[in-house]
Structure formats: C-alpha cells, structure tokens
Design brief:
Elements (H helix, E strand, L loop, with lengths): L3 E2 L7 E4 L8 E3 L4 E3 L9 E3 L8 E4 L2 E6 L8 E2 L4 E2 L24 E6 L5 E2 L3 E6 L5 H10 L11 E3 L10 H15 L4 E8 L7 H6 L9 E5 L6 H16 L5 E4 L4 E6 L10 H14 L3 E4 L9 H5 L5 H20 L10 H5 L5 H8 L8 E5 L9 E5 L5 H10 L4 E6 L11 E5 L2 H6 L6 E2 L2 H4 L4 H16 L5 H5 L14
Parallel strand pairs: 12-13, 12-14, 14-15, 17-18, 17-21, 18-20, 19-20, 21-22, 22-23
Antiparallel strand pairs: 1-2, 2-5, 3-4, 5-8, 6-7, 7-9, 10-11, 10-16
Helix pairs in contact: 1-4, 2-10, 5-13
C-alpha cells in the first residue's frame, strides 16, 4: 500500500498517508524516497532537492518557496517554507471555458414557497433585531418547543449581539442578513422580534426584505406591549397553526442551493473531502442546481483558477474585485494578508495560505463561475457562485445561509461541533476523525484513502445523502439541537 501521495505529476512534494520515520524508504504509487526526517501523517515530504528560494509545488501549483535548501526526503513545513503571497495584483483573464454535461431527473421532497424558491425545512424562527432582546428570544424558543409537531420541524431563536451602536457597512450588513433570514425558504414562519429604540428596528429590517411572504411573517416591538412574552407566544402559536397542514412535495434538484465551506482543515482535506465536495457540486450544477463557495482569504493563491473559469469577462472583473477588495480590507486594518492557516491547520500539515487555498478551492469542482455575490447578497443565478465573506466558520456559514443556501456542506480534518442557521452536514477528511467523533461527522470522505473508494463513487454517495437531508433526514448538528448565527463585523462600535 502506498505511504506517500503525489497529487499531480508536477509536484516536488508528496503527502504522507501515515506517520513515517526517518531512515527508511517510503513509497508512492510510482516513486520512492529515503526519509531524512520524521514526517507526520498529512504533512509534506520533499521528493527532490529543493534549493533555497526554490518553489515548492503541490496540486501542480507553487505553495511557497524554500527558506533554506531542502534535501530530498525531508519534512517540508513552516520551518523551511515561506509564502509567496503579497498585496493586490493585476490579473489577465485566460478563460478555460469549462463545460458540464447537463443531467436532469433527480428530486427531493421540499416545501415550495411563494417566491419560487424551495425550503428543505419548515421551521419556526425567532429573529431578534437587536441583542437587547436576546434573552426574550431564548425564553420564547424554550417555551415554543411545545409547538413542535406536524408541519413544524423545529423552533429556533437566532440571537446575536448587533442591531444597534453600529455604523456604515456593519449596520447595513446586520440589517440585510436579518432581512435575508426573515425570508429564507427553510423558515415556514418567522417572528421578527424588536425592542423599539434600536438603530435597526423592525420597520427598517422589513424595508430590506425582498418579496416577503406576509403570511409567514409576524413582528413584535417589545416596548409597545405590556407582556412581550405572552404577545410573542400568541404570534408563534398563530404561525405554527398556519404551518400545520403543510407537507413536503417532490421538487427538482435544480431548486437546491448548497453552501460550500471548510474549517479545521488538515493535510488530507484537499485530497479527500474537498475534491469529493467538488464532485458533488458538479453533479448538482449539472442538475440545474446552485452551489456557493466562500472564504475569500482562503482563495488567495488559488484565485486565478477560479478567475479563468468565469463564464464571461464581467464575472471575471467581479472576481478580481472580490479578491483585491478583501486584500485591501486586511491592509486597511494593518494586518498581514497571508497569515491564515490556524494552529490546527499547521498541526494537520498545512504550511502556507497557498497550500490551504489550493485545497480549499477543490470544493468548487470544475464548473464555470456564474456569478459573484457581495456579503449579504442573495443568490440570483444558478450554477457556481462566489460569495464575499471571511474564513471564520460561523461568519462564513451564516453568510451562506443569508445568500439563500438551504444547507451547508462543511469539510473538516480536525472536527467541529458548530452549526449554522441551516442544516450543516459535516464531512471528515480522514476516517479516524469519523470514528472518533461519530456524533459530529455525517459523511466520511476519508474512505477515499482508507478503503480505496473512487472519488466519483463518493461524490455520488454524497449527492444521495444531500437529497435525503433535503427531504428531511437530520444531520448530526440538528439531532443535537445546535444552531448558530454570526454576522460579519469590520468597523466601529459606538
């Protein structure tokens, strides 16, 4: 069995598939190398002598340059590898014009909405306009569990610390994200809960909503009623009663919108979990469906791959702006653009941001890029979309939900229990993680290596699981009752 994996023939490093000890010869499929140092699983080993300043190639692209001469057989990591990334760049569109063969016929059981979208859940949501009413929202969530039953899948309160004392883009982002969630297709009923004196009050949030279904929306301003809990419970009972008779019906897979996210990545994420997600994305898009890729800082170093897949020059220009605007955001806050891999990433074998980005973008598959979305902007075009949001797991996943994702596919090599406003399906990059954290992980992409499962077979299997989840099967996070909301903040708090 191979102990090393060279991802492309161009690579001058390979990934250790298991812990390897110095002094022995380790073999790949068609090569071998005498190890000069120990190499942990998921980490890189040099396949040839790399001179100081020489480029280290993985995924067929440079992931950095050698800080010092690296002999063949040596561990390649943060101690001897530096990034090649810098500031804003100018780009030239070199279109590759990728094409996917259209496929149709797959369906799921969902809830059609008045605006033409389809929900995969019929949940009752309580959305505070401002953090001041968070405790009221939590108390309502607790007492409204009595409303669960036919037509009401779950009751969730999405608390957050914002809605007041914000300025500029921060205030606008909060308003738009809350408005997006109030009209999300997974919500069969929404109570928008305000205080009454906040900057982003009920009327302002309503004004930001696109085509709200008034039948599914109720509002309450706590300062205007004597007993806010009693008044809110009456509205929740009214919404729940209205939802009772609603049932799932067959809907085409083309109606699905799926967010793509990774976190707690390791050296296997870009080899197993992310390519499997990419295979899923291509399959859903071939059905006429939509996927959304985010985490802009984790595109740095791999952005030209996405740019050259843009459907047209306008989309290319929007992608250039997406990348350079986010770099400018780092610079304006006097932060280093290329400092992104976390301690967990590094422990798992990821050395530079290029290393992380080339693995991260595997989630996009091979489909053309159809559109680029601003933060809090709702998806409009089918196919592969790019969304402006940071790499933070909770913030990025919330942004995907606000953009209209029915569910989020979340790959991880280290494991995480978090959830988002929509079902968050966890995909492990390695089988030991799935075995250790069976209560967190929904799908094991590590079988690509541990069992030799072909990638297309795993991508097909993931598509089947997504269709089951879209039809009502719960992910682990839902079974635990987890749901989180995090809004992007970049500026001043008053």
């Amino acid at each position: 069995m191979a102990e090393l994996l060279r991802i492309t023939p161009k690579d001058n490093v390979a990934v250790a598939l298991q812990p390897l000890a110095a002094g022995r010869t380790a073999a790949g499929e068609d090569f071998s190398v005498l190890l000069k140092t120990d190499v942990p699983a998921g980490h890189k080993v040099a396949l040839e002598d790399i001179p100081e300043g020489g480029k280290v190639i993985k995924y067929g692209f440079p992931i950095g340059a050698a800080k010092e001469a690296i002999p063949a057989g040596s561990h390649v990591h943060v101690h001897n590898l530096r990034t090649l990334l810098g500031g804003e760049l100018e780009y030239v569109w070199q279109p590759t014009h990728p094409q996917l063969e259209p496929r149709e016929g797959r369906t799921f059981l969902g809830y059609p909405r008045a605006d033409g979208r389809v929900g995969i859940r019929n949940e009752l949501w309580i959305i505070p306009t401002v953090g001041c009413v968070n405790d009221i929202a939590r108390a309502l969530e607790r007492d409204a569990q009595a409303l669960l039953g036919p037509g009401v899948d779950r009751v969730c309160a999405f608390t957050h610390p914002y809605g007041c004392s914000q300025m500029g883009d921060d205030q606008e982002n909060t308003r738009q994200v809350l408005a997006d969630l109030c009209t999300h297709p997974n919500a069969g009923g929404v109570l928008l809960l305000g205080l009454g004196c906040e900057n982003s009050g009920v009327d302002i949030i309503r004004a930001h909503m696109a085509s709200p279904d008034e039948k599914r929306l109720r509002t309450l301003i706590c300062q205007q009623v004597e007993d806010e809990h009693e008044a809110a419970m009456a509205l929740l009972r009214e919404l729940a009663e209205q939802m009772r008779g609603e049932e799932r019906v067959p809907c085409p897979a083309a109606k699905l919108v799926v967010g793509l996210k990774c976190g707690g990545s390791d050296g296997f994420s870009g080899i197993t979990a992310n390519p499997v997600i990419g295979g899923f994305s291509d399959r859903l898009i071939a059905q006429g469906g939509t996927t959304i890729l985010t985490e802009v800082p984790e595109m740095f170093g791999a952005e030209t791959i996405l740019m050259n897949r843009c459907e047209d020059e306008e989309t290319f220009r929007k992608t250039v702006a997406l990348i350079n605007n986010f770099k400018r955001y780092f610079e304006e806050h006097h932060q280093t653009i290329y400092e992104n891999p976390s301690p967990g990433n590094k422990a798992g074998g990821i050395s530079t941001l290029e290393d992380k980005a080339l693995g991260c973008t595997q989630k996009s598959g091979f489909a053309p890029v159809s559109d680029v979305l601003r933060y809090a902007e709702r998806v409009q075009r089918r196919g592969l979309n790019l969304l402006s949001a940071p790499g933070n797991d909770l913030v990025a996943s919330t942004a995907l939900a606000a953009a209209g994702a029915n569910l989020v596919l979340f790959s991880t090599g280290r494991g995480t229990p978090f959830a988002s406003p929509v079902p968050t399906l966890k995909i492990s990059s390695n089988t030991p993680l799935r075995q250790k954290k069976a209560g967190w992980i929904d799908f094991d992409a590590g079988r690509l290596l541990s069992e030799g499962k072909p990638l297309p077979e795993l991508a097909d299997e993931l598509l089947e699981q997504v269709l089951r989840v879209a039809s009502g099967e719960k992910v682990k996070g839902e079974e635990h009752g987890f749901h989180d909301l995090a809004i992007f903040k970049g500026g001043v708090t008053l």
